[in-house]
Amino acid sequence: MNLKHGIPEPWATALTDAGFISPWDTPSMNRLSEATGIHVSTISRIIKGQNLKGPTHDVIATLAKALGKPAKELGKWAGAAWAELEPYSPPAVSALLTKEQRASVDMIIRAFATSNKAAQQDADRAVVIAAQIATKGPSHRAQSKKTT
């Protein structure tokens, strides 16, 4: 395994290219964590191939967006079985539903879509805020002068 500062490729290069750099100019999982809201230990397990359950679609999509890479590509890096979501088309048997049943199914789909959209907007805001924080660089605490 090719490692760059303890992070395997292609992850290390992706972190660097996306600007997730530590104060020591090395790829930073901590900065990615700050940008995405995904705990750094989760990111570490995914990057190092130690995530036994496999990453969820939402986690991979959030990481992909932050790194500026296609989710399918990150899914491959993480060793995740990955399938791009295709537009929904109801099964052929849906023709048997009544008008009221179709309206109910439509309401359920809209509720899921609204929830997913809100979650994605939250993730997008977190990425923007973290990027703003990352561009400010490390903070230095002001040292108080002790008077005697």
Automatic annotation (TrEMBL):
Domain HTH cro/C1-type: 32-74
Chain segments annotated as transmembrane: none
Superkingdom in the source lineage: Bacteria
Pfam families reported for this sequence: HTH_3
Stored CDD domains: HTH_XRE
Signal sequence, start to end: none
Protein's UniProt name: HTH cro/C1-type domain-containing protein
UniProt organism field: Williamsia phyllosphaerae
